[in-house]
Design brief:
This protein is mainly β. It has 4 domains: 297 residues, Collagenase (Catalytic Domain), CATH 3.40.390.10; 78 residues, Sandwich (Immunoglobulin-like); 180 residues, Jelly Rolls; 81 residues, Immunoglobulin-like. Helix content is 12%, strand content 30%. It has 8 helices and 35 strands. Strands 1, 2, 3, 4, 5 and 6 form a 6-stranded mixed beta sheet that branches. Strands 17, 19, 20, 23, 26 and 28 form a 6-stranded antiparallel beta sheet that branches. It is globular, with a radius of gyration of 29 Å.
Length: 689
């Protein structure tokens, strides 16, 4: 069996008892991942086979050569973060950490290398390969070696995603970070699989965002994933050979082309004394295994990697040349060329604090911050915390230096501080102005091409409403419309009601609109209403651009009463629209009122009891506030009080608790959720559709 493309499930070095992560599989040998580059091109498949044979011949000659070197190789790297403004948009710090881990693994600097089984200690290799983030981009401009591209293709992680952006492969190792990788945790091609000029677009590594480094969305158990994948990029096979499935007896008939990695069937668990295929002991702790306790490369693997680096196949021999290291900036002294910073929050309430983080590059050692309206007003740390007491919008200025150079930048209106006592009830908004500036509502999404905006094309009341342009390309995106602070203490509980209009673009669309409330100025949110799938639809399927043509194409909805611990002076609300590529969404008459509700609902709201969505179909979320820690029983009961099912039973901590309630097996009708703790009982009514 031979591979024209190695598409590997990335492995984690973890505790020896860690079980295999079965949610991913290895996709080795799947040249189809290169898409149209190979589909319909049998001559390219033949070219791959010829290139593989040539590289293997070169590798054997290199390994037998008495003149082979033991140099240190430096590889310029660029990380392309392809994201849809989700958690896959990982931080710079997580990328920096991933490079650190790669360099430790490839330079025998990982702290646990000397803990490998004694039989393999003399084979542990210092690969002497160092990966460095580029400091100059292909045009010679300053960079930190990280690009960011917004695209829904992040969920596919395929060749189409790679086509969005790639730097020249003869100058950089391209690493694409994505939310999906076709069922794998990541993949890479062998040099021979992409040796032709047509294959350049596929050359590099794709990796899931939660397998990058040891921090952020990843963790130490997954942190060695890029080390494994870089091995494939430099022509290393899995220890059991070039197949997709470790652990099979037939793997004894294949090999990885490395003399000092014993023949093995391959491991998916950390059996340190495992021995297969007649070997005295398998190299279970090798980075090219699936054992989840990887710690080492071997000297034989090092020779194979060096052969790849000295071969012209896929331009690997150009990457580490002095000329290319200068061209990509990795051999130059760091030059400060960009000032950038982020913060953990952009919108806060008066009295809250913000933590700022410098993202400037490169080689910054000095910081001078200025915070108008903030306390402190200035700071010299790389990541200062600043509080703001007065409502308003504030700029932030950062000047960075390294003792020789300095550079400064100002971000206008970077921080928004909302009043700690918001507008009083009732709050009514029909959006008859020309924009959102005169309302308490503001779009809080990060997309330039689509956002909530006031439109004069349609309205339920008057001629205006809020429109979100939603097209097929928006699939996977989330859009938000957030409020300023609202004071409901004068008339609790509060109910937020609204009109909405939506049509599907295709019958399979499953877009969703949810309403949330926050009692900590937007740090955390509690869902209060959900309209999903057919429950959001107000008009027939429309393959064009949907605009409601009259009141019959508008729906009405409202939340359950919001009170209890949410009866505060700086309550915030937000609408969140999750797109699956459906059609436009329209909102009008968003009103927040002190609720006139029945006794049961009013009592439940005052105690903080909530069931959403309501009405519900397949599943609902139950939220309750417990005054004290203790034994709790939550159950579903019918209209006459007979128990239907137990939702939860046992000790619970004080504060907000949430339970998920499955409704698939219930007939339609009205029910109650009853929560009992000590002598206290909370009840919330809801309807099963």
């Amino acid at each position: 069996m031979w591979a024209s493309a190695s598409v590997a499930l990335l492995l984690s070095a973890a505790h020896p008892l860690r079980a295999q992560q079965t949610e991913f599989h290895c996709g080795a040998n799947e040249i189809g991942r290169m898409g149209d580059l190979v589909a319909g091109h049998p001559e390219r498949v033949q070219e791959i086979a010829q290139s593989r044979a040539a590289l293997e011949h070169f590798t054997q000659a290199w390994e037998q050569s008495a003149n082979r070197d033991d140099n240190t190789y430096i590889i310029p790297v660029v990380f392309h973060i392809i994201h849809n403004n989700g958690p896959e948009n990982i931080s710079n710090e997580q990328v920096f950490d991933a490079v650190r881990v790669m360099n430790e693994d490839w330079n025998k600097l990982n702290a646990d290398w000397n803990q490998v089984q004694p039989e393999f200690l003399d084979r542990v290799a210092d690969m002497k390969v160092t990966f460095k983030l580029a400091q100059l981009d292909p045009s010679g401009n300053c960079t930190n070696g990280i690009t960011r591209t917004v695209s829904s293709l992040t969920t596919s992680g395929d060749q189409n995603m790679k086509n969005l952006i790639q730097w020249p492969r003869n100058r950089y190792l391209n690493i694409w970070v994505s939310a999906g990788a076709g069922g794998a945790a990541g993949y890479s091609m062998y040099p021979s699989s992409v040796s032709g000029s047509w294959g350049a677009a596929a050359d590099g590594i794709v990796i899931l965002s939660n397998y990058v480094g040891s921090i952020g969305t990843s963790d130490p158990n997954k942190s060695h994933s890029l080390s494994h994948e870089a091995g494939h990029w430099l022509n290393l096979m899995h220890c059991w050979g070039d197949s997709n499935n470790p652990g099979l007896p037939e793997n004894c008939g294949s090999d990885d082309g490395v003399a000092d990695t014993p023949n093995t069937i391959g491991w998916t668990s950390c059996n340190l004394r495992g021995a297969t295929c007649g070997s005295a002991l398998d190299n279970v702790e090798n980075f090219m295994e699936y054992s989840y306790c990887s710690k080492m490369f071997t000297n034989g693997q090092k020779a194979r990697v060096y052969a790849a680096l000295n071969s012209a196949t896929a331009s690997r021999n150009n990457l580490w040349t002095p000329a290319n290291l200068a061209l990509t900036g990795v051999s130059l002294a760091p030059q400060i060329c960009a000032v950038a910073f982020t913060s953990n929050r952009r919108t806060i309430c008066a009295g809250d604090s913000v933590t700022f983080t410098d993202g400037s590059y490169n080689g910054v050692t000095q910081w001078a911050w200025t915070f108008p309206g903030g306390s402190p007003a200035t700071a010299t740390a790389a990541s200062p915390a600043v509080s703001y007491d007065a409502p308003g919008t504030y700029s932030v200025t950062l000047s960075v230096g390294n003792g020789v150079q300095s550079l400064a930048a100002t971000q206008q209106e970077f921080i928004t501080v909302l009043p700690s006592t918001g507008v009083a009830l009732p709050v009514a908004e029909s959006f008859e102005g020309n924009n959102l500036a005169s309302t308490i509502w503001e779009p809080s999404d990060a997309f330039i091409d689509a956002s909530f905006q006031v439109s004069g094309q349609a309205g339920y009341t008057g001629s205006h409403s809020v429109k979100l342009v939603n097209v097929a390309a928006n699939a996977g995106r989330t859009y938000e419309l957030s409020s300023s602070t609202v004071d409901i203490t004068g008339d609790p509980p509060a109910v937020i009601s609204f009109r909405y209009a939506y049509a599907k673009r295709t019958a399979s669309n499953n877009d969703a609109l949810r309403v949330y409330a926050s009692r900590d100025c937007g740090q955390t949110w509690s869902m209060r209403r959900a309209l999903t799938g057919d429950g959001l639809v107000t008009a027939p399927v429309n393959t064009g651009s949907f605009t409601p043509n009259g009141p019959d194409q508008w729906g009405y909805s409202e939340t359950s009463p919001i009170g209890g611990l949410y009866a505060i002076s700086d309550l915030r609300f937000k609408f969140v629209f999750q797109s699956t590529g459906g059609n436009n969404l329209w909102l009008d008459d968003i009103n927040i009122n002190g609720a006139s509700v029945g006794v049961a609902e009013h009592a439940a709201a005052a105690q903080g009891m909530l069931v959403v969505p309501n009405p519900a179909r397949d599943r609902a979320e139950v939220t309750a506030f417990l005054k004290e820690t203790g034994k709790v029983k939550a159950e579903l009961v019918d209209l006459v009080g007979r128990p239907v099912k137990v939702i939860a039973e046992g000790a619970q901590p004080a504060g907000e608790v949430r339970w998920s309630l499955g409704l698939e097996d219930l007939p339609a009708g009205m029910y109650f959720v009853r929560v009992q703790q000590g002598g206290n009982t909370q009840v919330a009514k809801f309807t099963k559709e």
